[in-house]
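User: For a teaching handout, I'd like to show students what a predicted protein-ligand complex looks like in C-alpha cell form. I'll give you the sequence and the SMILES for NAP. Please answer with just the structure.
Assistant: Understood, here is the input followed by the structure.
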Amino acid sequence: MNESILITGANAGLGKETARQLALKAETKRIILACRNPQKAEIAKKELEESTGKQIFEIMIMDVSDAQSVKKAVSELDGEIDAVILNAGGMGGRTPEKMTPSGMNELASVNTLGHVVLVDELIKEGRIKNVVMLASSEAARGIKKMGMMRPALKTNSTEELASILDGTYFGDKLDPMQAYGHVKYVATLWMSSMARKHPSIKFVSMSPGSTSGTSAADNAPTMVKFMFKYIMMPIVLPLRGMVHKVGKGAARYVDAITNNNYQSGGFYASEESKVVGQVVDQFKIYPVMANPEFQDNAHQALHKFIP
Ligand SMILES: NC(=O)c1ccc[n+]([C@@H]2O[C@H](COP(=O)([O-])OP(=O)(O)OC[C@H]3O[C@@H](n4cnc5c(N)ncnc54)[C@H](OP(=O)(O)O)[C@@H]3O)[C@@H](O)[C@H]2O)c1
C-alpha cells in the first residue's frame, strides 16, 4: 500500500497529473510535490487541492540537476516514503550540451544526477518503504519512426556509459533527440542495478508513452520545440495514432507502483515500434539492457559524477 508518495517534477505535465490520480485513491495520505520553482509549486498545489478536494499535498523544493539541492531537501524531510516517482526530466532545456559543475551536461543531469542522489540519500536514511519508479522512455530502446536511434554502444563499459553523461560520446555536436534516448538508457540500466543491490525495495522503469498535454516541448531546445510543439504533437503523431493524453501517460505511472505484475529491475514501455497502447517487457525487445554487468556499469558511471 502506498500511503505516502514523493513525485519529482510534480508541478506540471505527467508529474502533476500523477499526483492528481494518486490523490483520488483512498489509501493515499500524503503526496510530496518535489519541484525546483517555489511559485510554480504553490500554484500546482492549490490547483491539485481544488481538483481533488484533498489537503494532502506538501511542497519540497529540489533542483534535480543539483546534488546539494537534493541533499538539503532530503535532510529537511520527515517520515517514511512508500513510493518515489522519479519523473522530472526532459531534453535539458535550451542548452542541453552545457556542462554543469558535476561534469555531466544539462540534459544528463536533469534526468539522472539528482534522482541518483535522492534515492541514495533516502536509502541511507532508511526512508523508502516500497517502490521507486523511473520515468523512462521508449527512446531508451530507440523509436525508429521518430528517428531516435536504438543506443548501440561498443562495450557498455563504465567509461563508455559515463561518456554519454558528459556528452563526449556524441562528439562535437550533441543532437538532443539522440542524447535524450541514450541518457534514459543509462538511467534505466541504473534502476535495474539498484533492484539487485536493494532487494527489499521494488525498482521499476516505466515509460509514460508518447504523451501530449505536457510542457515537455516548451522546455526543449528551439528546433526540437518547434518540431514537437507545432508539427509532431498537434498534427503528425495524432494522425499516425502515436500519442495519447496525459491522463493515460500518468495512469502508466500509477500502474507501475501498484501492479505486482511489474518485476523489480524491469523496464516497461510500449510494444516494439509503438509509443502508445499496451505496455510490455522491454528486455524482450532489447535484451542488451538485461545484462547485469552493463547495469552495474551504469551505476558506477553515474556515481563518477557524484562527490
Ligand atoms: N511527454 C512525453 O511524451 C514523454 C515520453 C516519455 C518520457 N517522458 C518523461 O516523462 C517525464 C515528465 O515529462 P513531461 O512530458 O511531463 O514534461 P514537463 O511537462 O516538461 O514536466 C517536467 C517536469 O520536470 C520538472 N523539472 C525539469 N527540470 C527540473 C529540475 N532540474 N529540477 C526539478 N524539476 C525539474 C519541470 O519543472 P519546471 O516547470 O520548473 O520546468 C516539470 O515539473 C520526463 O522525465 C520525460 O523525459 C515524457
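For the handout, you might add this sentence: Residues 4-303 form a domain with the Rossmann fold fold (CATH 3.40.50.720).
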